[in-house]
């Protein structure tokens, strides 16, 4: 069986690799942003919580 | 490791005598299929353990593993479609293997949506654990579908009991890519778990002091 000459095979290959890299980078970037935000929120909570607890 | 495997597969692995250059898609498609199945096995195991012990950490692992598995299953279907068009002449057939992987993707979506569908997150996690456990029946169907039914999809080239039926020039980059994607998936899961635990700690602090 000979694969058809059109569409070009490298298009399929590069689309596969591009899409996979994009998906991995997006999920990695999203997770890193989420981690950064969670760290900032936690630091803010610690800062806000300390003065209020010292009033008790 | 992932970068080495992908560059090896894309530039240095030889072209196949029958499929030509399109065989390079295998170095993505097979690891994605493996990762999607492995992730679902983890999801089912977490579901089982969660139903017994109701441990919140186990529930959290299931919550964070779901989207990663859904991504792997989606990429497995898309790369398979992109491989199928030049090899088989079609993007999609309702073949047993392809359909069972599509069902796996739907199970992942169902799991993600079930967790978020309830006002009480614990009830959502319980329902999702039941769904994950019931959906585990799809894993052996995916594995043996090419043996049980007449399928356009090729049978497994790598098994634990026999030597691989593919040339070593394909086998080595495939193994490197598979290990690379597995480690990347595991690292992403740990990263998401770390973020989720910090979010919960911040939420617990906020609830502890209602003035905040």
Automatic annotation (TrEMBL), chain A:
It comes from the Bacteria. It comes from Bombella saccharophila. This is Heme exporter protein CcmD. The chain crosses the membrane at residues 12-36. Keywords: Membrane, Transmembrane, Transmembrane helix.
């Amino acid at each position: 069986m000979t694969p058809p000459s059109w569409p070009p095979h490298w298009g399929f290959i590069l689309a596969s690799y591009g899409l996979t890299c994009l998906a991995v980078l997006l999920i990695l970037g999203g997770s890193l942003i989420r981690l950064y935000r969670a760290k900032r929120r936690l630091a803010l909570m610690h800062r806000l919580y300390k003065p209020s607890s010292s009033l008790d | 490791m992932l970068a080495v495997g992908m560059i090896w597969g894309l530039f240095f692995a030889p072209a196949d005598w029958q499929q030509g250059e399109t065989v390079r898609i295998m170095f993505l498609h097979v690891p994605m299929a493996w990762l999607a199945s492995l992730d679902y096995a983890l999801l089912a195991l977490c579901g089982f353990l969660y139903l017994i012990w109701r441990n919140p950490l186990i529930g959290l692992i299931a919550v964070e593993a779901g989207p990663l598995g859904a991504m792997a299953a989606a990429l497995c279907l898309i790369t398979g479609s992109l491989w199928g068009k030049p090899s088989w002449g079609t993007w999609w057939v309702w073949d047993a293997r392809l359909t069972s992987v599509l069902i796996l993707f739907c199970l992942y979506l169902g799991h993600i949506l079930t967790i978020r569908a309830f006002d009480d997150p614990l009830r959502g996690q319980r329902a999702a654990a039941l769904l994950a456990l019931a959906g585990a029946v799809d894993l052996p169907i995916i594995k043996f579908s090419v043996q049980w039914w007449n399928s356009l999809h090729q049978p497994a080239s790598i098994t634990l009991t026999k030597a691989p039926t593919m040339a070593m020039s394909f086998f080595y980059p495939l193994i490197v890519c598979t290990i690379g994607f597995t480690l990347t998936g595991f690292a992403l899961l740990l990263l998401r778990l770390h973020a989720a635990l910090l979010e919960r700690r911040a939420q617990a602090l906020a609830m502890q002091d209602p003035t905040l």
